[in-house]
Design goal:
Blueprint lengths: L1 E5 L2 H18 L6 E5 L6 H12 L8 E5 L1 E3 L10 H8 L12 E2 L8 H14 L5 E5 L20 E4 L2 H7 L13 E4 L2 H5 L3 E6 L5 H8 L18 E6 L8 H15 L1
Parallel strand pairs: 1-10, 2-3, 2-6, 3-5, 6-9, 9-10
Antiparallel strand pairs: 4-8, 7-8
Length: 263
């Protein structure tokens, strides 16, 4: 596992965006570069920088296919809290060469959620899998909507959201947890870790326990983020604020390793 510690959220976002752009630019195969994407507050800075780079001609999305992590059940695309709306408002609408047909987001209005999830997994497989999956984690360490005690081998499926998750997300729903959908469609932990690379963004003091569990804790269904310890291409990009629960030795180790990488 690689842990890249940046001074603040802005620097973390810039580092992650430039890393992703570098991977897209280095992709020389005829097949598309397949990119997994999250929603939430953590990736907004990355999306802003990638859009700037795209408009400046520094990276092209013309040969990129995207798959989003999740979507609320029961919210239509036009709902301002749907993840379809979020992604277009915060990212896709700001790109000059993203092809609409290359954007893949789970349909929270599907009549048969299980069939929708199976279709999604099959479509990912049809592209040969995901090259790089960017994500964030919750304060309890969940990846996508894979809440604590979700199987670390799970695939895309219907998820019930915990009370804690609905409370945290209620800030987007008028601070009313009951207004937050109780279910979502989500890629599985196994879906994420099948990707060739996984880049997880962790920022802020409130994510410090989750970062420590991801990096230093044992592999456990209690912290679905800990599955990243078993991934050969896992990268954590974090800010200083999120490092408060790491041991001093761990913190110094990753700073030292990254310093040597730059030499």
């Amino acid at each position: 596992m690689r842990v890249v510690i940046q001074e603040n959220y802005e620097n973390m976002s810039l580092w992650a965006a430039r890393y992703i752009a570098g991977k897209i630019n280095a992709h020389r195969e005829a097949r598309p570069f397949v990119l997994g994407l999250p929603t939430g507050s953590s990736p907004i800075g990355v999306y802003r920088e990638l859009a700037r780079m795209n408009r400046a001609g520094e990276v092209s999305f013309s040969n990129v296919v995207t798959f989003n992590m999740d979507e609320y059940v029961g919210l239509p695309h036009e709902h301002d809290q749907s993840y379809w709306y979020f992604m277009h408002d915060n990212f896709f609408n700001h790109l000059v060469d993203m092809k609409p047909e290359n954007i893949n987001i789970l349909n929270g209005m599907a009549e048969d959620p299980e069939a929708e999830c199976a279709r999604y997994e099959a479509k990912i497989a049809s592209y040969g899998g995901i090259d790089l999956f960017m994500g964030g984690i919750g304060v309890d360490g969940h990846i996508a909507f894979n809440e604590p005690f979700t199987s670390l081998c799970s695939r895309t499926g219907l998820r019930s959201l915990t009370t804690d998750t609905r409370i945290v997300n209620s800030r987007f729903f008028g601070n009313d947890p009951e207004a937050v959908p109780a279910q979502a469609l989500s890629v599985g932990v196994g879906t994420v870790t099948d990707s060739r690379e996984v880049l997880i963004l962790i920022n802020g003091h409130n994510k410090a326990r989750a970062l420590a569990a991801t990096v230093e804790g044992g592999v456990s269904q209690k912290w679905t983020c800990s599955a990243l310890q078993l991934h050969n291409g896992a990268i954590i990009a974090c800010d200083e604020a999120a490092c408060g629960e790491l041991t001093v030795d761990t913190y110094k180790y990753f700073l030292d390793i990254e310093k040597k990488e730059r030499l």
